[in-house]
Amino acid sequence: MKEQELLKYLIGILLERLSELYDEEVVFDQFIFGERTAYVECLEIIQERIEAEKYELAFDIEGRFPV
Known about the structure:
Elements: H1 3-21, H2 30-49, H3 61-64
Helix pairs in contact: 1-2
């Protein structure tokens, strides 16, 4: 797998997991809070180091997924 494909895959997985954690049916607890925070931080780190538009990551991550 090429680096770009891997990066797109990783971003997709992180966004998918975050969306699941913000589902109304998910019971919020400290573990969920930690997961949310970790995923948001990972995406923000990635966003700072890539061409965000190219990877559809050009948005306020913490605005969409508040922690």
